[in-house]
Structure formats: C-alpha cells, structure tokens
Design goal:
The protein is mostly helical and 343 residues long. The chain is 64% helix and 0% strand. The chain has helices spanning 10-22, 32-38, 50-63, 66-69, 74-87, 96-112, 121-133, 143-148, 152-156, 162-175, 188-203, 210-219, 228-243, 251-274, 290-312, 315-337.
Length: 343
C-alpha cells in the first residue's frame, strides 16, 4: 500500500504541509503544532519525507537538551544525521524511515513517561542514539539467512547476532570520523560510557534476546531508578519495545508497516527457496498471512513486553498497551472474516 493513499483529515494535511515548509527553515523553527504531535505515538511517520525526517530528528535532540548537555556542534549533528540516512538501505521495511520511526517512538516514551526527570542525560542520549542507529546498513535479510547462507557477516561475527554486530560497527565507524562525531566535545570517559551503552542496546535488539530480557523485566520487584541494574534492564526493554512497536500506532499506519514488513519477509523466503536454504517459517509467502503473523507477534511478544514495562512506567498502559490490545482484536476480526476453505 502506498502511504499517499491514506485518507488525511484536515489537521494531518496541515501538519504534512507545514513539515515540508520547515525543511527550508533554521533549526528550532518546527511549528508548535508539529512539535506537540511529534511527542506522541499517534504521530504519522508516513507523512514525513526524507529531508523532513532530518529536520525533526534534529529538533528531538535539541528539545531533549542533548545538544547543550553534550556540547554538540549544530553542523556536526546535521552531518551525523545525514550520514546515518545515507547508510540505511532502501529495503521495504528496514530503511531510514524505520530508524526514524523507532527514534520517534523512543522520544514519545521519554516525554510521556517523564524519563528526563528519572534518568541521567547519559541514559537519554544513549536511548536516542541507539534507537536511531540500531538497524543502520541492514541488508534486508535477517540473521537466519546470514547464518544459513554462510555470509561474510555471519563468518565475521561467528554466527552470533551478525546483523546487530554489523549495525554497531557501522555506528562506531561513523562516530569515529571527526566530521560526524557528535561527542567530540564531551568528556572522553563519558563518551566511552555512552558508546559502550549504545553498543549494548543495539545488540539486544536481536530478537534472540527477547525471552531473557522479558523474563528479567517480569522478575523485577520494587523497581528503583537508583538501581543501576534496574535502569540498564529498563533501557534494554525500551529499545526492544520501540523497535517492534508499530502496532501501538493508529491502525492505518500500523497496517502500512505490517504490509512492508511482509513484503520484506516474502522477499527473503523467495530467496531462501531459490538458493535451497531452509525457509524461515514466519516468512513463507505460501503459508504466512499478515493477520495471523501480526496477531501472534502482538500476543506473544509485544503485549507481554509492554505489560512488563507498564509496571515500571504506568503511562505506557494508556499510550501503548491499550492500542496493542485493540490491534490484536483488529487482527482477530480479520482472521475470523476470512472464509474457511472447503476441502
């Protein structure tokens, strides 16, 4: 489905046009109407064009006071964002829009849950940079494919989270260049801590870590923001949630994400079949449907994770958990409406 086919209400049309106008304006000129919309999971990321994403990402960094706190140079921040955009590939799903989407969801969670009052600036910048960089240079073929096809990436990282290790390597390569190093004026010890934490968060986006992270969150009793281990686990849970949170968005937007995800899945399974590799079960176009796939994903991964996070951050119950429960019902209805085949 083409995002241009979405029926926009008058406010959405106004926001879309105004975003386009701001791309030519100086930093800080994002209209208040858009600033407020950007703070919520209901923000329609499909209305934003490539250059506009850069404008809004820059605004997020300023709004969270990260530019001032870490003495980032404005031109360096812009070059860093441009470089990331250039390094994301044109996949159906794992592209720069996905990186923007995950970052915007993280920005929403930070604001709605008032995390700036509860976490350190180091934690906030770590969450934002990790969200933005977590899938940079994704090839559109997942870890199963990399391992089964014995790719160079799989070999380089000994079949252990090859994609996530690659995303980390590209992120560090970009930040290691002076013209892109947004932390060039930050204390070196603090910078090292930030980069180590960014690496740690990107690595846990491998879905293979999901069960362990979820169980650890569920096992926490008397969560404390003064407990470093608790905070580290919360950050891991948050980046995992934001990475897979599309179904917490309004239905029309979520359905678009589900469609491009299935397109990328089907492309992989077609390639696996053509190359004689094991076909990843949840990607097989002959057996997998969007409604069944999303219903299962929401039920067994997203809702349990969101429930665990909502125990720590109650604001997520209204903004994220309830929309997920509604999305599950929507897909269950779609499944029920499919005629049963007569054998």
């Amino acid at each position: 489905m083409n995002p241009s086919c979405i029926n926009l209400d008058p406010l959405e049309r106004r926001v879309s046009v105004t975003i386009q106008e701001t791309t030519q304006e100086a930093r800080g000129e994002v209209p208040e109407e858009i600033q407020e919309a950007l703070k919520k999971p209901t923000f329609n990321v499909w209305l934003v064009q490539d250059k506009e994403m850069l404008t809004l990402l820059e605004h997020m960094f300023y709004d969270l006071d990260l530019v001032t706190c870490f003495k980032m140079e404005a031109a360096t921040l812009r070059r860093f964002l441009h470089s990331l955009q250039d390094h994301y590939r044109e996949n159906p799903f794992h592209n720069f829009r996905h990186g923007f989407c995950v970052t915007q969801m993280m920005y929403s969670v930070i604001g709605l849950c008032r995390l700036q009052d509860l976490l350190s600036p180091e934690d906030i910048v770590t969450l934002m940079v990790a969200a933005l960089c977590h899938d940079v240079d994704h090839p559109g073929l997942n870890n199963n494919y990399q391992v089964n096809a014995h790719t160079e990436l799989a070999s380089r990282y000994q079949n252990t989270s090859p994609l996530e290790n690659h995303h980390c390597a590209i992120t560090m390569k970009i930040l290691g260049q002076e013209q892109y190093n947004i932390f060039s004026h930050t204390d070196p010890e603090e910078t090292n801590r930030i980069l180590e934490n960014v690496t740690e968060l990107i690595l846990v986006t491998d879905l293979a870590h999901h069960p362990q992270i979820l169980q650890s969150l569920q096992d926490i009793q008397n969560f404390s923001f003064s407990n470093k281990d608790h905070v580290t686990l919360l950050k891991k849970g948050l980046i995992k949630f934001c990475d897979i949170s599309n179904e917490a968005r309004p239905a029309e937007e979520a359905e678009l994400w589900a469609e491009v995800l299935m397109e990328e899945y089907y492309m992989q399974s077609d390639r696996e079949r053509a190359e004689g590799l094991p076909i990843t079960p949840y990607m097989d176009r002959d057996t997998v449907t969007k409604a069944e796939s999303q219903r299962s994903f929401i039920s067994f991964l997203l809702i349990p994770l969101c429930e665990a996070l909502s125990q720590i951050l109650p604001q997520m119950t209204v903004w994220m958990l309830q929309p997920l429960q509604e999305a599950r019902l929507r897909y269950e209805k779609q499944i029920a409406e499919v005629p049963t085949k007569i054998l």
